[in-house]
Specification:
Length: 141
C-alpha cells in the first residue's frame, strides 16, 4: 500500500496535469451563425435524454404486447357481458315499474268495491289482489 501511495505522490504533477486537460483536448469551433441551431439541437438532445427512460420502458414492454392485448380483449368481452346484463336489468326494472303503476292504480278501485260490497252485505268468493285470509274473514262475518 505504501509503495502505491509513494508512486502516486511521485507522479502527482503529471496526474494533476492530466486531470486539468479536457477529455477531447479541443473545442468544437462553431460559427456564430449556427449558434442558435446548436442551442435548439442541444434542447432536443436534453429532451430526448429526459424521455429516454420512457422510450426504453416502451421497448422493454414490446415482448409483453401480445399478453396485454389478450388481457384487454378479455376485459372488453367481460364489459360487453356486463353491459348486456345491465340492459336486461334496466328492462326488467321498467317492466316492474309499469306493473307497480297498474297495481297501484287498481288498489283504489278494489278498496272502493270492497266498501260498496260491505255496505250492501255482498260477499265475493275471491277478488283480484286480495289474500285468501282476507276473503275468509269476510266470509266468516
Amino acid at each position: 500500500m505504501n509503495n502505491h501511495l509513494e508512486a502516486v505522490l511521485k507522479e502527482k504533477r503529471s496526474l494533476r496535469q492530466r486531470l486539468l486537460k479536457t477529455t477531447c483536448e479541443e473545442n468544437l469551433p462553431i460559427e456564430a451563425v449556427y449558434h442558435r441551431y446548436m442551442v435548439h439541437l442541444l434542447e432536443l438532445a436534453v429532451t430526448f435524454i429526459e424521455r429516454l427512460e420512457n422510450h426504453l420502458e416502451t421497448i422493454r414492454n414490446i415482448p409483453h404486447l401480445d399478453e396485454n392485448l389478450r388481457k384487454m380483449s378479455m376485459a372488453l368481452a367481460k364489459m360487453d357481458m356486463l353491459v348486456t346484463e345491465t340492459e336486461e336489468l334496466a328492462e326488467n326494472i321498467l317492466k316492474w315499474r309499469e306493473q307497480q303503476k297498474e297495481i297501484s292504480s287498481c288498489i283504489p278501485k278494489i278498496l272502493a268495491e270492497e266498501n260498496y260490497l260491505h255496505k250492501h252485505d255482498v260477499i265475493m268468493p275471491s277478488l283480484p289482489f286480495t289474500s285468501k285470509v282476507h276473503v275468509q274473514t269476510i266470509n266468516s262475518k
